[in-house]
Amino acid sequence: MRNTHANPPFLPNTVADWYRVNARDFPWRRPGTSPWAILLIEFMAQQTQIERAGAAWAVWLERWPTPAALAAEPPGEAVKAWGRLGYPRRALALHGAATEIAERHAGEVPSDVETLLALPGVGPYTAAAVASFAYGVRTPVVDTNVRRVLARAVLGQAEAGPPAKADLVLMASILPEDAEETRLVNAGAMELGALVCTPRSPDCPRCPLSETCAWRSAGYPPYAGPRKTRQPRFAGSDREARGIVMAQLRAADRPVPADELAALIPDPARLTRALASLTRDGLTIPTPTGYTLP
Q: Candidates 1.10.10, 3.30.870, 1.25.40, 1.50.10; correct CATH number of 238-292?
């Protein structure tokens, strides 16, 4: 499927050209970056600001330059090194992915989307991003930023709404045939959404698609479609309690007794739920003397 509009609102060559000039100089975008390094940053940036993820990425890559290096360590070391990046299950999944790569793929990150999807913690976005950015595979890479650019430029909507398979179909219809141009269009659409076509204050005069943008042409109509469900407040939540427990376990070189954790989380029911969920996720291990990392 290709974009066959007489006056297409999304111009792939325009986006690729814009990206060549305006892309931020992140180290994982430079030539020669290993597929493992790209997989690593994609894991870290899933739900973390890119600047924070980038700082952790450099430290991890120095310590574990290959999947085999990470796989050789206990999973608790990955959880400890994850620090405050949030959602520490990603650290366990990354360790699991590294182990599978080392044991089943001769230490080489797979290049095709389906094989990548079989790795722990790798979903459709991460699989497509690694395939495209590390290997030049022609596949649509769609994150929140890309979905917003597509919604506005092509569909004429202020917001993208909840994620849907249609987003991938639409992006695939726009991609050029050339693999390298596809990589630039994928990365360019993401960068455009991050820097210019932002959620609250889009800088339309700077946008390379401003002359053909369907949303701009329609007079910027407000969004009236379905919305994602918002997360509950973090303060006072079980998520906060989980974070407190994990911080204490990362800082300790021994099992942490339950009474020490109770001093930090005085609500017994909240602490019980946090410990139960962390244990269920494999992030904590109960021992006779307390709780420890895996």
A: 1.10.10
